[in-house]
Specification:
Elements (H helix, E strand, L loop, with lengths): L1 H20 L16 E11 L6 H8 L6 E4 L2 H12 L3 E12 L2 E10 L2 E8 L3 H11 L9 H16 L7 E8 L6 E9 L5 E8 L6 H7 L19 H17 L6 E9 L8 E9 L5 E8 L6 H8 L9 H8 L8 H6 L7 E10 L2 E9 L5 E8 L6 H5 L12 H13 L9 E7 L4 E7 L7 E9 L2 E13 L1 H4 L14 E9 L4 E10 L8 E13 L5 E3 L5 E3 L5 E14 L7 E15 L10 E15 L10 E11 L16 H4 L6 E12 L7 E12 L13 E3 L13 E3 L17 E16 L2 E15 L11 E12 L3 E10 L14 E7 L7
Parallel strand pairs: 1-4, 5-7, 8-10, 11-13, 14-16, 30-31
Antiparallel strand pairs: 1-2, 3-4, 6-7, 9-10, 12-13, 15-16, 17-18, 18-19, 19-20, 20-21, 21-24, 22-23, 24-25, 25-26, 26-27, 27-28, 28-29, 29-32, 32-33, 33-34, 34-35, 35-36
Length: 848
């Protein structure tokens, strides 16, 4: 009886100890007296209750080791429990004494593991948002679910939507036991975004020298709510707001207020509703005094004189202090020369420069520009990484830095531009990694490229006007004719030499058949950037009647009801890049021959029967300094071209063409065609995304002989976005959005055209697999028949918005909504002020 009483007392004492200090040390034997602590040697430790964790690792984490001496009761057991609780892996921990032999004690650590994640689901979010969140929260199957994990997940999800302007986002994570997997739970992440919080009003106080409008403009991402804001939102994002407050101070610094600071700022809810949809921002500034540059001296310069450096710096005594301008002229100037570039273009790779304020007196500042010129470096090696399909020589021929040359920063920048222009690589991923070798003053240059999908394959069918049009074609823009005849060169197509091959066929039963083939070698001979282009196409368009029929005698004869036109064209062009007036210039010389064979084919060419021969030569000179192909941000493209046939009427011996039919007049087509186009790209935002593109173009089609008059070929057609794939007479179809297709020129086309366009563009995605940008446009244009009627300011105006999507497999796709503002004499049913949608395929229509 005494033994039983003693055992019950031990159990009660042990339970009390577990409750009070979080530890349990029990022994079913009578060898432990909790009122009389005793020292034992640990003879063994076992782990009970774990499935996914290593027993030895748990023992190690506990701090208990076989052979150690412990006091029971004592601090060692409490410490072991605390060590295990710190791991946050268990929901319950107990330590038992399973056996005592003399002074040796055997322990058992009984654990209950925290549940593990089997899966998680989102509620209240879109699929794309859920995909983005999965990448951020890093929840994986089998991960231990802790309170910290739940809290972190809630914060990540909430901050994701707060970053998108949903400041009132609420996140609730519920747990449910997974009955299919032992000790596992399912997490359901429910998101209530609420309304997006926008900025109603931004108010400045204390700005006596700079208007509030300029300060608001300096805040690039924090904008007031406005129905006219298309390319920037007015959502409030805390991180952007902090950055934009620095932009306000930078604006003051640009105006000479070097001590300007924000004294106070506050953001508060402006609407009284429960949803809190808008906030107001109030910013109080302290402008301080306006400062001016005074004396600027150069220290450490031996290569160039101070007078030469002052000329590049371009800052005079008495100019308003502008920290941004100073840093631009010292470090890097995208619009001109800078001091760092002057040295680094002459080999001084390790050149260092620092402008230092040395004296401030009243409103004037003296600067000392300290320089360490260092050594002149030469290029030792040039290498390329990242190209998989493209052969190295295709890249190396565009690189302007050669082994043995002095290091030149401008050549590196220009090389990146040239690699972008060839269209094989993602322009957003181009970079260069210079590795200097100070021991011998050399540098290794490693250019990094990432190829993008560029080949296009077209297999399509369309139904319209009771007919089906089928198209089969492909364009290989990194073709290799050499690999076409090489074993293993088809993977799946011969590629790698930067050549372009395009084959296309279209058919509409008996009505239309068209075949096109073109090939371009951009580096003819492989040593110089001289291009060769060969193209050929053949088209047959008819009234759908069979060409041959069988007569009553069973013979195959020509069908008298057949009406058709056959057009065959062959063109060869030679292009060359030149270095004068600068190395952005190139020219193209092209010769072409087109044969038109008409068989009772209406009045499309002022005649319906006969042949017309169009032999012409074209000369094109172009200056293109744009930084990339698909979404240019900087640079310009200016092109002048003249295309002409021989003046046959001067030597054909015919004095009077009056009695001749049109078929006889145009048997040998004669004309001269002049065009000028320009396109300028200007960055409007500091991040380089918002871009203004302005374009202007003029075209004139002339004739040699007034008796023959204007040829019915090569004319201009303006209006709408006509998707006409059958430009059978050499016509140029020019888009003018907001008007009906081809409505701004006569049915037979026009001989004079002018067009002007301004577009503001903003990218929605610069991913090379799907480049997307929105735009707002205003454009104007018109056509005329004679020079006496030509007035470049008498134009039809329109405006609208649109989106462009570039998919490598299909090219550029466009959707525009335009409104035409002027009446159209040739289309009296057109109502000015009405809008219409336009769908386009391809980079441009015509060349204006």
């Amino acid at each position: 009886m005494q033994t039983i009483t003693k055992y019950i007392g031990v159990v009660i004492f042990a339970l009390f100890a577990q409750f009070s200090i979080g530890q349990t040390l029990l022994n079913g034997l009578g060898g432990i007296e909790y009122s009389n602590p005793k020292t034992y040697e640990i003879g063994g430790i076992t782990i009970d209750g774990v499935q996914h964790l290593d027993a030895n690792a748990i023992i190690l984490l506990s701090g208990l080791t076989v052979g150690d001496e412990i006091t029971v009761p004592g601090d060692q057991i409490t410490k072991a429990l605390r060590n295990l609780w710190k791991q946050k892996l268990f929901s319950d921990i107990k330590i038992y004494a399973t056996k005592i032999v003399g002074n040796t004690i055997f322990l058992s650590i009984k654990l209950e593991e925290r549940p593990r994640l089997s899966k998680f689901v989102f509620k209240g979010v879109s699929k794309s948002q859920a995909d983005n969140l999965r990448e951020s929260i890093h929840l994986i199957r089998g991960k231990i679910v802790t309170e910290n994990l739940i809290t972190n997940t809630e914060n990540i999800v909430r901050n994701y939507f707060i970053g998108k302007g949903y400041l009132n986002t609420k996140v609730d994570i519920s747990q449910k036991i997974d009955t299919l997997i032992n000790n596992s739970i399912i997490l359901t992440i429910t998101v209530d975004r609420g309304s997006r919080v926008k900025i109603k009003e931004i108010t400045f106080h204390g700005n006596n020298s700079i208007k509030a409008g300029k300060l608001k403009k300096a805040m690039r991402d924090t904008k007031e709510k406005s129905p006219f804001r298309i390319f920037s939102s007015s959502k409030f994002i805390e991180s952007d707001y902090k950055t934009d407050k620095a932009g306000v101070i930078a604006k003051y610094n640009e105006e000479g207020y070097r001590d300007a600071k924000i004294v106070t700022d506050t953001v508060y809810v402006s609407d009284k509703g429960k949803k809190k949809k808008t906030v107001n921002i109030e910013i109080t500034v302290e402008e301080g005094n306006r400062f001016y540059f005074r004396n600027i001296t150069f220290v450490g310069n031996t290569k160039y004189t101070s007078a030469q450096l002052h000329q590049i710096l371009g800052i005079e005594k008495g100019d308003v202090f502008n920290q941004a301008e100073l840093e631009t002229k010292v470090y890097i100037n995208h619009n001109g020369r800078d001091i760092s570039g002057l040295y680094q273009d002459d080999g001084y790779l390790s050149f260092q420069i620092e402008p230092v304020e040395v004296y401030v007196e009243n409103d004037s500042i003296d600067f000392e520009i300290r320089m360490n010129e260092g050594k002149r470096y030469r290029v030792r090696t040039v290498s390329v990484i990242g190209n998989v399909k493209t052969n190295d020589h295709v890249i190396m021929r565009e690189i302007r830095t050669r082994p043995g040359d002095l290091f030149n920063r401008s050549d590196i920048i220009r090389t990146q531009r040239e690699l972008s222009q060839i269209g094989l690589f993602d322009p957003e991923k181009l970079s260069v990694n210079p590795t200097p070798n100070p021991q011998d003053a050399t540098v290794d240059l490693e250019y990094i490229v990432e190829e993008k999908p560029i080949d296009q394959i077209e297999l399509s069918g369309a139904f319209g006007a009771g007919r089906i049009v089928g198209t089969l074609g492909f364009s290989l823009n990194n073709f290799s004719i050499k690999n076409a005849f090489k074993k293993g060169g088809w993977q799946p197509t011969p590629a790698g030499d930067g050549q372009k091959l395009s084959i296309r066929a279209q058919a509409n039963g008996l009505f239309i058949r068209s075949y096109t083939l073109s090939f371009t070698e951009p580096w003819l001979g492989g040593k110089k950037p001289n291009s060769l282009t060969v193209s050929a196409n053949h088209m047959i368009q008819s009234n759908g009647v069979k060409r041959f029929i069988t007569d009553e005698n069973g013979d195959k004869v020509t069908n008298p009801d057949r009406r058709d036109i056959k057009i065959s064209r062959l063109a060869i062009g030679y292009g060359r890049k030149v270095r004068w007036p600068d190395d952005y210039f190139s020219y193209l010389i092209e010769g072409s021959y087109s044969l038109y064979n008409l068989n009772n084919y209406g009045t499309l060419f002022n005649f319906s029967e006969g042949r017309a021969n169009n032999i012409s030569a074209q000369f094109v000179v172009q200056r293109n300094s744009t930084d990339q192909l698909i979404y240019p941000r900087l640079g310009s493209s200016i092109k002048f071209s003249v295309k002409a046939s021989l003046p046959y009427s001067l030597f054909d011996g015919i004095d009077d063409y009056t009695p001749l039919s049109d078929a006889e007049k145009y048997k040998w087509v004669e004309y001269h065609k002049w065009k000028f186009t320009s396109s300028w790209f200007t960055t409007l935002s500091g991040n380089g995304k918002l871009v203004l593109n302005t374009r202007a173009g003029f075209g004139f089609l002339g004739f040699y002989n007034s008796q023959i008059g204007q040829a019915p070929f090569e004319r201009f057609y303006l209006g709408g976005v006509a998707l006409n794939g059958w430009a059978i007479d050499g016509r140029e179809i020019i888009a003018l959005r907001g008007y009906d297709d081809l409505s701004l020129s006569s049915n037979t086309g026009s001989s004079i055209i002018s067009k002007y366009t301004a577009e503001i563009r903003y990218p929605l995605s610069l991913n090379p697999t799907a480049t997307v940008f929105g735009l707002a446009f205003a454009e104007a244009g018109n056509t005329w028949e004679e020079f006496k009627d030509f007035n470049p300011f008498e134009v039809k105006r329109s405006a609208g918005i649109g989106v462009r999507i570039f998919l490598p497999m299909f090219g550029m796709l466009g959707l525009d909504y335009g409104v035409g503002f002027d009446e159209v004499e040739l289309s009296p049913l057109f109502q000015p002020g009405t809008g219409q949608f336009h769908f386009s395929i391809g980079m441009n229509f015509g060349e204006l």
